[in-house]
Amino acid sequence: MGLKEKILTKSLYVFHLSSGSCNNCDIEIIDCLTPRYDIERFGMVLVGSIKHADVLLCTGSANRLTVPRIKALYEQMPKPGFVVAFGACGASRGLFKDSYNTGKPLDEIIPVDMYIPGCPPRPEAIMAGLLKLIGKLTAKPSLRWR
Amino acid sequence: MNMDEFLKNIGNRFGDRVLNINKKSEKRAYIDIYPKDVTEFVRYIFKDLSCRFDTASGVDNFDTLEILYHFSHDPSGITVSLRAILSDKQDPHIDTITNITKSAWWIERELHELFGIEFDGNSDLRPLLLPDDWPKGVYPLRKDFQPPKRDSRKE
Amino acid sequence: MNPLNYLVLFLVFPGFLFSGTMGLLVGWVDRKITARLQWRIGPPWYQNFVDIMKLFYKETLVPEGASKWVFFSMPLISMAGATLVSTILLVSNGPAHGGFIGDLIVVVYLLVIPSIALMLGGFASGNPLASLGSSREMKLVLAYELPFLLALFVVIMKTGYTIRLGQIIAWQDAHSFVIASASGAISFFVMIFSIQAKLGFIPFDMAEAETEIVSGPYIEYSGRALAMFKIAKAILFFAMPILLITLYLGGIKFTVDGMLWNVLEYLLILLIVIVIKNTNPRVRIDQAMRFFWRLPTLLAILAVVLACLGL
Predict the structure, then answer these.
(1) Total domains in the fold of chain A
(2) Domain total for chain B?
(3) Among A122, C34, C73, C309, which residue has the least CB neighbours within 10 Å?
(4) pLDDT tens-place string over residues B49-89
(5) Residue of C214, C309, C171, C257 whose CA lies nearest to A73
(6) Residue B123: inside a domain, yes or no?
(7) Chain C contact present for A80, CB below 8 A
(8) Interface residue B135 vs chain A (CB under 8 A)
(9) In which domain, by residue range, is B83 found?
(10) b/e per residue, B19-46, with b = 16+ CB within 10 A?
């Protein structure tokens, strides 16, 4: 594994985007910063601006109104960057599958690297997902997708 | 005031323009009215009885549309809803209540674009939740709405 | 001294490399103590270094409406200003008491440069939120410079009206520390507030508020430019307690127990700054201006009067 990947995985800056979620997932993300689960010991911080971010954490089921905005945000994230689809809504639109306002699931809009299932995912599941992302990046080249 | 006083006030003021009163419990009641009387009822409840306008909801019964206006009287904790049944489903009209309370702007926009109800007197009925390229005349929350097939992967 | 000596002083020791490394370590101390105060564990010691290295590997995006020359030169100017401050302070504290007449004034001027560079970088970004952050930074500089300069004037008056850092240290060697007098102690107290605002820490971090105006002037910076701003901030964080030690606590001594006392004083000043940072909410810019032009200014004027009387 290269030095670049190792350094990148030691300090991931996470940008949290809610594309029409019920806000349950957003609350669980904030839980990860609390002393019980403490995600800062892995070097991950929540940042305010997309241009400082390495990981785009996308909750919500990608409303039709938010599709151009999600695409714009993904393009503004400096590469190398990764996308994590959060919750059941991020993976497949969840129970909003037949709704009038959700046309496509998130992974047909932007390329997704990791799914964290759950409605909402527990903080332990969030941390397991983010650590699996780190593991995927530092794995042998044959196991990486890009 | 408690629920009985409230309903007595409404009965005294409006007499037989009230179609029906359904008192579900000490804290909850539904008052059925004609759609053409809605501004007078709302003015009386909002101003004279000093209630707070909570929200409005729409229902599609298969041959009529119905709007519920929910008001809550905070000091006593009671909630009263006005039910107005619109019988013409092809071209439903009702007067706007934004002259009385500005807080009804956006809920009327939402009811207009999701149900197709026209609010006479409301000049700003732009779409609120639906995207700009949504076809006109298709109202998602009506019972005869067919959800679209999944968007194609190519877009 | 030939120019090569100056270059080594500026770039290696005690200039860019030394101050940069120490600044990033001091930043780690800040994060670790903050985490411990919140009953968390906190990041490992190499976290800040890894952050800066990772930012060098990312691509740099330039917004379309930005003026490119200003946008890219501001991080460099900010880094240069911070490094010069650190170099002059450490050279004056060195065993030869280097420096020149008027280097205190030069340090005061150079301390404003990182703030001005941040402001101009924000305005050059072409983003309304960045302009909002920059205008707040401007008002904050107006607010805290006044008590800062008044408190500095107390130090100058007590150490025999000298404006040379080396002579301030020499006066404190011959007499007592400046902080040991009443006016010196009040002036030190006022300086702590100004340091908090200059470094952009809570309660005065409304210029770069993380979630309110989405990082303010930093919003459009990414990759290497952002890394340079972070290094500049780290070097400034390292240099400010050294400025306080030079002016009030007798400078850096080069004996064994002198050095131990210096480390203790440095950690104490760091602890004061970090604890204030963790126990306060963020204030609005008008509250900050009102605060700085009332309490610290009045205390600093009181200190000047006491210094005139010889206390």
Answers:
(1) 1
(2) 1
(3) C309
(4) 888 999 999 998 888 889 999 999 888 889 999 999 988 88
(5) C214
(6) no
(7) yes
(8) no
(9) 3-88
(10) eeeeeeeeeebbbebebebbeebbebbb
